[in-house]
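Exam review. A common question shows you a sequence with its structure tokens and asks you to describe the fold in words. Practice with the pair below. Do the first one on your own.
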Amino acid sequence: MRYLNWIFRVVIFLVLLGFAVKNDQPITLHYFFGYEWQSSLVLVLLIFFAAGTAVGVIAMLANVLQQRREIGNLQRDIRIRNKLADIGGTQQLPK
């Protein structure tokens, strides 16, 4: 399985390297107010991919933090209930 994983990584690397080599033409991005930016197509695609990934992670972050807080509260409730159940189970009935 380890070798299969490395073979997969090498294949992905070679495909991306071939993509980068074939798409090294300069492009011009036009912004508002006459601003322009010239760069390689691969660099522009990499930057926009990274920016999209960052926006996705930031958008998901609030939901993950809320779920972690809720899990912590539920785990605390379970510990409290287990302690109460242990206390109730160890008490002896009066004779």
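Now try the second one, then compare your answer with the model answer below.
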Amino acid sequence: MFGFLIALLSGALMSIQGVFNTEVTKQTSLWVSTGWVQLTALAVCVAAWFFTGRESITAIFQVEHKYTLLGGVIGAFITVTVIQSMSALGPAKSVMLIVISQLAVAYLIELFGLFGADKQPFEWRKLIGMLISIVGIIIFKWQK
């Protein structure tokens, strides 16, 4: 139940953040806004680290698969693409497409066991669920 609630909170925060970042971008620029997001995220992480366990920072150099350290780089591009999509499509359409993309890529990662994820067997119900989601987006976007 905890995981379910945290996932719902994460989705809500991502939507709110996307709207906030889009507004900041309108008043500054894409890279200034993205830099601010990353800088403030770093500040929060440093503060949280300071007040919690204070694990060794050097442990980052012990990470086995070095490509996984690209999460921050990917995070910067996530911020940029969310801002651009929300600006072009609006929050609701943008988030629906982002969620469908996340679901599709996550399923492919599981299906093929990529990046160390446990490989899962193909299931028709998951593919059908994805297609239903896509139909939902088409219905949501449909205009008379």
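Model answer, second protein: The chain has a mean pLDDT of 91. Residues 2-141 form one domain. Full marks require stating both points clearly.
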